[in-house]
What does this fold into?
Amino acid sequence: MTTSQIGIIVSILAYLAMMLLVGFVSSRETNDVKDFYLGGRKLGPFVTAMSAEASDMSSYLLMGVPGLAYFSGIADAGWTAFGLIVGTYLNWLFTAKRLRNYTAEVDAITIPDYFKKRFEDNSNIILCIGALFILVFFVPYTASGFSACGKLFSSLFGVNYQLAMIVSAVIIVGYTTTGGFLAASKTDFIQSIVMTIALFFVVGYGIVSAGGVNAVMENIAALPGFIDVNATYNNAANSADPYGLFSKITMFCWGLGYFGMPHILLRFMAIRNASELKLSRRIASVWVVFSLAIAVFLGVVGRSLTQSGALASLIDIDNLSSSAKAETLIVVLAQKISEHNFLFALLAGLVIAGILASTMSTADSQLIAASSSVSENIIQETLGINLSEAAAMLTARATLIAVAVLGVVIAWDPNSSVFGIVSFAWAGFGAVFGPCMILSLYWKRMNRFGAMAGMISGGAMVFVWKYLVRPLGGVWNLYELAPAFLVSIIFIFIVSLLTKKPSETIIDSFEKVEIKS
It folds into this structure.
């Protein structure tokens, strides 16, 4: 084993030990199921903000976005980042405070539980629909995180991809099952800091290696359309392809997904005081702008180094479908950093820890949300199986492990794309929960039948558009989130207006929350 590898391993082990320690300490504050799933509603504004954004910015922040920018230029990655920035801010502005007040008013600890109590659905149909969709989309989302970990260690140390993925999953499951939501939120806060340091350090190193910002831009100038927001770079033809309004809207629509992300919405519900959400919104908005901008620029810097010959090309133009290899850009740069000396190897290890942080911060939150859907919403409430507090905690942890195992199975193929998997799951959550969440908080006339119709139609349209409509190409090649989101809104309005009005108690609760917000 080389000195550089030893340095990297030392940093990674120190980081992982810290995460497990946080999980152990948090377990002392996790006394019941409500603590396990929502942390007792006692998160401060900084932890709320940074854990929400860290759980959002999964492996696509350090691997997916830079890889996309490296592959085709700044248009795709840049418009996606812009949509995410706008979506983040609007979600904090319009959803956070009302959801916090509403869930406290009706005493809900999960998103499906909120919809059930918001619409007084004693049949538990909404609860079951929501929980099942969380499982359907969170398992592959979690799989993308495991896949990123497998790619990371396989690229770095040449170890077996599947073995690396399993070990990573075991560690994530280890601290999450121990400390639950509180452990996930505290580790996410730490991980957001590690991710930020990793991004700035790697970009700085890349710029210095290229000879400065001017040198970076000169190297990129040889790639037509690479830094043009109105064009994308065609690797096979070494030419620029037009990137029109339709394409921009498609990528910008990523921002719609925020309104339906359970692992982000849970952070809004868990803050100790709704009045602190304004500070959290400012912190989160600033962080997401800087982190995404740096992630896109990292792809540009990496491609510049390839052009100059300082970095081997990560793209095989004879097999462009394997663009997933571009997602290992930050790993390759970390390896270059580690070759200087032991101190640089330790710093490279910090970069790798940043990649782990981006992956783990999302995977742990997804596991918590998926676990709560099965053990709390399906087993206990839908099936009516009453469990003691100890049995409920055991069920929650067992479910979390089972979801992780399914995620490992889905991510077994090393050629799976992190960005591709996240894209589909993101569309699913955005369409199933986004319209229902927004309208449930702001439209008094919405009822449980409209909520059911919105969830089912939104979720179904994601599959229909992805596998039946989008392959037609041309004007139909639109990201599935946008049409599915629109269909869900239409169904909610039509079905709610055609069915019975909400009861007086539902109206009273709505007006009470409206006054507070």
